[in-house]
Design a protein that fits this description.
Blueprint (H helix, E strand, L loop, with lengths): L1 H48 L7 H6 L1 E2 L2 E2 L17 H9 L5 H5 L3 H11 L1 H4 L6 H9 L3 H10 L5
Antiparallel strand pairs: 1-2
């Protein structure tokens, strides 16, 4: 009987000790979680406030070459006609200020890959190596030549 009582007292004391010990750590993690969640919500709100199609300063600066702007707000092409670009990637390109075939054709592959890398692992796997050339053909109206080339491509590669 004494053995059972001592065991129960030991178990209660251990439970009380460990519950208090880890409670502080759990409270710290909850605080960190709430801070990160607030930061995330603030970032989401800031992105929603930004007008659609308005590029950030880096994208605007990169759209100028020798003092001449490549941006033509009147032309908004369907970039999904380029093999390897779907609606989601088109949205990423639009968010970065690329709206037309001409703009896409003048964009370096490194910039396009950077856009995909910044969008996360689902987009990193795409290869934009042929997109500028496909966009050049589309911008020049060489649809037959583009179609022949796309027939040989698989997913933009």
């Amino acid at each position: 009987l004494w053995l059972i009582i001592v065991f129960l007292i030991g178990w209660v004391l251990a439970w009380w000790y460990y519950s208090n010990k880890y409670r502080k750590e759990v409270d710290e993690w909850k605080t960190k979680y709430n801070d990160l969640e607030n930061e995330h919500n603030t970032t989401i709100k800031a992105k929603k406030v930004r007008a659609p199609g308005v590029a950030d300063a880096g994208a605007i600066a990169s759209s100028f070459v020798d003092g001449v702007s490549k941006v033509d707000d009147s032309v908004k092409d369907d970039l999904t006609k380029v093999e390897g670009i779907g609606p989601k990637i088109r949205g990423l390109l639009n968010d970065d200020g690329i709206w037309s075939f001409r703009q896409l054709s003048q964009s370096p592959v490194d910039r396009l890959q950077g856009i995909l890398n910044n969008a996360g692992p689902r987009f990193r796997i795409h290869n934009p190596g042929t997109w500028p050339e496909q966009a050049r053909l589309a911008a020049d109206g060489k649809w037959d030549e583009l179609k022949k080339w796309q027939d040989n491509l698989k997913g933009g590669r």
